[in-house]
Amino acid sequence: MAPETKRETVIVLDFGGQYKQLIARRVRECHVYCEIHPHTMPLSEILAMKPMGIILTGGPNSVYAADSPTYGKELFEAGIPVLGICYGSQLMAYRLGGEVKTAPVSEYGHTDVTIDAKDSALFSDVETAADGTTRCWMSHTDYIASVPEGFRITAHTPACPVAAMENAEKKLYAVQFHPEVMHTVEGTKMLRHFVLDVCGCSGDWQMKSFAEETIAALREKIGSDRVLLGLSGGVDSTVTAVLLSRAIGKQLTCVFVDHGLLRKNEGDEVEAVFGPNGQFGNLNFIRVNAGEEYFAMLKGVEEPEKKRKLIGEKFVEIFGNEARKLAGTGGFRYMAQGTIYPDVVESGMGAAGAVIKSHHNVGGLPHDLVVELGFDEKPIEPLRSLFKDEVRKVGLELGIPEKLVFRQPFPGPGLGIRVVGEVTPEKVHIVQEADAIYREELEKAGIDMGKGQFFAALSNMRSVGVMGDHRTYDYAVVLRGVITSDFMTAEAAEIPWSVLQTCMNRIINEVRGVNRVLYDLSSKPPGTIELE
Question: In Å, what is the CA distance from 353 to each residue of 38, 224, 518, 525?
């Protein structure tokens, strides 16, 4: 649930681009609200949203292929500013009478793009080298061979004659490269020019106003009814709980399902914060210890997506049982959950979106359970439109202590997806101990863990080692550390070698069943932050 206010909005239409979330995040950095929608969204629905601008994403297809995702010419004739990126730029050219062909030379990675029109609204103050180039990120096999009537070429490369084009009069802009990724040095500036200068947005969307508007909207929507929240203790559910608490107070009940897959001592820590004697003790707090049920259910299961689904289904089952018990105390009209925008997008956003990984908190409870419990069909999700760093900003605005706001992120399925392969109590114990040592040593070394995510995971690899002159055949622990601002892209953290060595020595010596420690250098993409 987002606050119902009149706000400037930019729409991102998804044509299968891997960076769609990053585009939306970059727009929001301009303090302009942005939503992602599938390319199948009808023009009538787009117009009903009264967007200030539209951005078309990249994608893996060729616009001239019969089965490729497309949009009608009317999109570009609606009088709304449009920016096409990569595939989106080719679609704009193709639909308006230009020519798109297979490129003689494909471009991938860092590319020096020559800016031909410094008077372009996109490039007005873009810094260039002495030869007039700026470093950009390319990823294409097709290219615009000729521009539509009324357009001019504003940038090129030796292999790409139309690296950018525009029809300024109609406010139509296109770039073959990806301005949304950090590898395009001046990309954020280009997107800012489109959003603020071309679209005319004022850039007044702030987290403080979001919190105030959301609390007011929640209070108005809920009235005197009661709400049941699934609380994990992570930042998303914590901020959701505090927003609801500010809005409705004791009408909120929080159910904390401890699935036995939490970090070391975390179940007790959550209860210490939200229980009767905790900082937020004014909440109605219920803890359910369900570890044995989860381990029995996961026995023999190795496939990551199946683990995620089973863990989510078990949560629904346990949450439903608790709701039935509580029904005798007056019942609840609403269920609430801490869904955030990346959860929605990565879970597919419906039929048109690709599933990267399932999030059990997307979609709410099964319909029959909703009917049985008397819940409103649509769950209350105050953070559904926000990215992780935006959630943290809301948390700070609400006065939640930084220690909780910047707590290391933790996935809903918990250590179930940080144990590669079958999940057992023994493996979870290994990860809990290794993870505690890792984070303790990083803190001692002064590593700023607030800039990303740092954790230990357990590979499914066992190998020969030698300890105390004896042969061992034990597991390899994987240490992961990434730096990210939005969790859409991430780079491996450069942890000092001496710190990693200390972690390795302690984990091998103190955690039984481990004889190797690895450090994961993978970025996102192509990897994800979690191992599964």
Answer: 7, 37, 34, 17
End-to-end Cα distance, the chain: 29
DSSP, collapsed to helix, strand or coil, labels residue 271 as helix
Positions marked catalytic: 86, 178, 180
Please answer whether residues 418 and 431 qualify as being in contact, where contact means their C-beta atoms are separated by less than 8 angstroms. Answer: yes
Counting Cβ atoms within 10 Å, is residue 492 exposed (0-12), middle (13-18) or buried (19+)?
A: middle
- Of the candidates 77, 249, 64, the one whose C-alpha atom is nearest the C-alpha of residue 143 is 64
Tokens 């954020």 belong to 188
What does the CA dihedral 399, 403, 404, 410 come to, rounded to 10 degrees? 150
Tell me how far apart the alpha carbons of residues 499 and 520 are, in angstroms, rounded to a whole number. Answer: 15
Instruction: Pick the closest to residue 489 from 342, 270, 320 (CA basis).
Output: 342
Spatial separation of the C-alpha atoms in residues 123 and 193, rounded to whole Å: 8
Of 370, 332, 365, 372, the C-alpha closest to 225 is 332
Q: How is residue 387 written in tokens?
A: 């990215």
Give the mean model confidence (pLDDT) for residues 55-82. Answer: 95
pLDDT tens digits, 19-29: 888 899 899 98
The yes-or-no verdict on residue 109 having pLDDT over 90 is: no
Per-residue pLDDT tens for 302-343? 999 999 999 989 998 998 899 888 877 677 999 999 988 877
How are beta strands 133-146 and 164-167 bridged, if at all? Answer: unpaired
Q: How far apart are CA 36 and CA 41, in angstroms?
A: 10
Cα(230)–Cα(337) distance, integer angstroms = 6
Nearest to 454 by CA among 402, 390, 499, 394: 499
Q: Are 136 and 113 in contact (CB under 8 A)?
A: yes
- Contact by Cβ (8 Å): 251, 226: yes
Interatomic CA distance for residues 520 and 418, integer angstroms: 13
At 413, the amino acid letter reads P
Spatial CB neighbours of 11, under 8 Å, sequence gap ≥ 6: 34, 35, 36, 37, 46, 49, 51, 53, 54, 55
- Angle at the Cα of 206 (from 201 to 212), degrees rounded to 5? 130
Q: Token pair for residue 247?
A: 């809005």
Instruction: Compute the distance between CA of residue 349 and CA of residue 341 in angstroms, rounded to an integer.
Output: 10
